[in-house]
Design a protein that fits this description.
Blueprint (H helix, E strand, L loop, with lengths): L1 E7 L9 E3 L4 E4 L5 E3 H9 L2 E3 L5 H24 L5 H27 L18 E7 L5 E7 L1 E3 L5 E3 L3 E3 L3 E3 L29 H9 L3 E11 L6 E8 L4 H11 L3 H9 L4 E6 L2 E5 L1 H5 L4 E8 L1
Parallel strand pairs: 3-7, 4-10
Antiparallel strand pairs: 1-2, 1-6, 5-6, 7-16, 8-9, 11-12, 12-13, 12-16, 13-14, 14-15
Helix pairs in contact: 2-3, 5-6
């Protein structure tokens, strides 16, 4: 499950945090020669600036200001219409309606700007800036990452981004997840990570696993070719039979960072390259050196 927040820089209003489920995350690959999966996740969870989003609070506030001006004009019309009963009735009806709308708008600003304001034509607020951010709120058992490599050129053509994306057997997604403390400030992240960098140290491995944020690579889908054609192949990890026992013993025995990392990585596991009907066993180094990743499958430890 992911959490998304949109906040207005001008007034500071933050709409309700929206949660939504996902079966995969589509990550934009930066246009550079080489990058990492962590950088792709950073791009996905960065605070984006929006210039075309209409803040609900600013919209209600702008509409209220317009209603107050209309109400003042209606009262002036009433004072000028004393010689005509028809104009008096019309002005009084307008005043009554506008006063009711003013009360509704003031209550909405005080309690719930998102409330449905039936019968009120909302005014467009002046241009302003808002921010949007999405982070992972609840980590899935299987994490599927789609690497979007499409580059749209001004000419209308679409080409493939050939950047090599470096992956590791272990992935700590703690910096990209919420921690239970939600920040509504437009200029700050939804949540701050429990530690600053995804370094695979003894303590960080333990903390990441306790927080359900530590993942192990289980498969990669590779695409060779251009944007409009090519060939797909895959690498698949086959766990060794004694893997679960070794992990349990590693947890109970403690161990240093390299031993714990080796246990989590499944160093005794086997990897196979699958292409059409061909299956070939390959080394972990071969898998890690494949740069044309298209889909990455991780399992939570």
């Amino acid at each position: 499950m992911a959490a998304s927040r949109i906040a207005c820089v001008k007034c500071g209003y933050t709409a309700a945090i929206r949660h939504f489920t996902f079966d995969n995350l589509s990550l934009s690959v930066p246009r550079k020669q080489a990058t990492t999966i962590e950088e792709c996740l950073s791009v996905y969870t960065v605070i984006d600036k929006l210039t075309d989003f209409k803040c609900r609070y600013c919209t209600v506030e702008t509409t209220l200001a317009q209603i107050k001006r209309d109400l003042a004009q209606a009262k002036a019309d009433l004072n000028a219409a004393q010689d005509s009963q028809k104009r008096v009735r019309k002005a009084r009806a307008a005043i009554e309606k506008l006063a009711e709308q003013q009360q509704m708008l003031e209550e909405a600003l005080a309690t719930n700007p998102e409330a449905e304001l039936e019968g009120i034509e909302m005014a467009a607020p002046p241009p302003g800036m808002s921010t949007k951010q999405t982070m992972i709120a609840r980590t899935p058992k299987i994490l599927v990452l789609h690497l979007s490599r499409s580059i749209f050129l001004p000419s209308g053509d679409v080409i493939k981004n050939p950047a090599r994306v470096r992956v590791q057997p272990l992935l700590d997604i703690s910096p990209f997840t919420t921690n239970g403390h939600i920040n509504t400030s437009a200029s700050k992240p939804i949540s701050a990570p429990s530690y600053s960098a995804p370094l695979l140290t003894h303590d960080s491995l333990d903390a990441a696993r306790r927080n359900n944020c530590l993942y192990r690579l289980s498969a990669i889908v590779i695409h060779a070719g251009g944007h409009n054609s090519g060939h797909y192949s895959a690498y698949r990890r086959v766990p060794c039979p004694a893997e679960s026992d070794e992990m349990d013993s590693s947890d109970s025995a403690g161990g240093n960072a390299s031993e714990k990392q080796g246990s989590f990585m499944g160093e005794e596991d086997r990897w196979f390259m699958l292409s059409d009907i061909r299956s070939v066993e390959v080394s972990l180094q071969t898998v890690m050196s494949s740069g044309d990743s298209y889909l990455l499958f991780y399992e939570r430890l």
